[in-house]
Amino acid sequence: MAQPKQHPAKKFISRVITVVCLGVFIYAAYGLFDIFIDYYQNRQLLNNLQETFYDAASAEDAGEGGSTSDSIRPGFDELLKQNSDVVGWITVDGTQIDYPILQADDNIQYLTRNYYQKDSRAGSIFLDYRNDIHLHDERNIVVYGHRMKDGSMFQHLTKFLDEEFFEAHRTFEFDTLYDSYEAEIFAVYNTLTDFNYIETHFDSDEEYEQLLSDIQAASKFQSDVEVTADDSIITLSTCDYELDQNEGRLVLQAKLTKK
Asked: DSSP 3-state assignment of 122?
């Protein structure tokens, strides 16, 4: 028995729908491929920078280079040749955080630019433009980074929201062009941008002590790290979506001790 012929209008609509669906699929696939390539290139770039930094640092440890507190440490020489905005390095055990720190004249430039000043979804890890990398009289050193879905940049700060991980990883390494510091973690929390945890200037000891008190009150977990007005802290800040999609932040803070 012959099949009834499909009405021309219905046949046309069916073809249009097929073409539209195919177009949407191709567009989505291209978008995913573009994201994958961006992630891959970012990982390769960071791996190369890590090799450069640690090879130079190994040479320094072997006695092939030296520095004073007023000179740039040899471990950064090659990095500075590639980008004069580099000011330090951060390494957090148990995470993928093992990156150079850049600093621009604002807190915008490195949100969407990589180490070589090229556009990148991942951006870079960067120091607040208000901070002085010499850390002279600096009380709150603020470092920013994105949370990337592949686990890179500051995504792994979320691990510290687990109390067991928090207790097992209480320190990380913070290196500047001039000195090396141990950072002793004392707080982690979700917050909103209306909490000025990124303040870098304080008119008095009391104002700074109030911030320290507010930080400890906000922390998900209590620590036995004593932080006073005589101490400097480092603040690691990234976006967070628990409290708000746009204004939410995840913060990890630690007391700095010069090695």
From this structure: coil
